[in-house]
Specification:
Fumarate Reductase Cytochrome B subunit, binds protoporphyrin IX containing FE
Length: 174
């Protein structure tokens, strides 16, 4: 198993990023679906408590993943078509923008935020910072749902390509 990417397959680090983040996003999806469908249930309380820290972790992971992808740009497997190319870019963008807007809003609210006990934001007294809050309030939820829909499309496309048997794309990521 090679650490770096190659023309014919993704390397160990890219695969770890891909599947760890897939798991984390699946969990993140469960937190919001339960919030909508079973609000205030014990399951909702348990899952929602993980939404912010896990979202923060995803923000860290996407930054590292983009750096790794750029370092491997010249030797990664080629996209099978333009839809895959732009689709993957859109996934990257959304996984970065969605938590970023929420973290900005969290800071602007003046409330302390300590994901996994790390004192990331100490909070402050006084007025909230409106320009930091507004974009998140307007877009965080909607873009988050859009991300989940796009992930579903991504999974369906993987199944379609695997069934047609022409391109072995699952093999180069699994
Ligand atoms: C990739 C990471 C994330 C995803 C995919 C995501 C997704 C979502 C989605 C889809 C909703 C809407 C739920 C609804 O319709 O009721 C939501 C709500 C919320 N998220 Fe996130 N989130 C992420 C990260 C974060 C982070 C890092 C924070 C805070 C630091 C956060 C705080 C909130 C809050 C407070 C709400 C409820 C208010 C609202 O709807 O905007 N999220 N999130
Ligand atoms: C069960 C879930 C998933 C399956 C079966 C799956 C499958 C795959 C496969 C087979 C590839 C390789 C495509 C190719 O070589 O052209 C791939 C690449 C990719 N997937 Fe997924 N995926 C899943 C979840 C996700 C999630 C949740 C994301 C969200 C960010 C994601 C983002 C990407 C991206 C950005 C690529 C391009 C390669 C890279 O830059 O890492 N995938 N996926």
């Amino acid at each position: 198993m090679h650490i770096q990417d190659a023309q014919e397959r993704y390397g160990l680090v890219s695969r770890l990023f891909h599947w760890l983040m897939a798991l984390a996003l699946l969990w993140q999806c469960a937190t919001v679906v339960t919030r909508v469908a079973l609000e205030d249930s014990p399951l909702d309380e348990f899952l929602w408590a993980t939404h912010k820290p896990l979202g923060f972790l995803l923000m860290v992971l996407i930054v590292l993943r983009v750096i790794w992808a750029l370092m491997n740009l010249s030797r990664r497997p080629a996209s099978i078509n333009l839809l895959a190319k732009y689709g993957h870019t859109a996934l990257y963008l959304l996984v970065a923008v969605v938590p970023f807007l929420a973290l900005l809003r969290q800071y602007g609210s003046g409330r302390a935020f300590e994901p996994f006990g790390i004192p990331l934001m100490s909070g402050f007294e006084g007025d909230k910072i409106e320009w930091m809050i507004a974009p998140g309030s307007l877009l965080h939820g909607w873009l988050g749902w859009l991300l989940f829909v796009m992930i579903l499309g991504h999974i369906l496309m993987t199944i379609r390509h695997s069934r047609s048997g022409k391109q072995q794309i699952l093999k180069r990521m699994w």
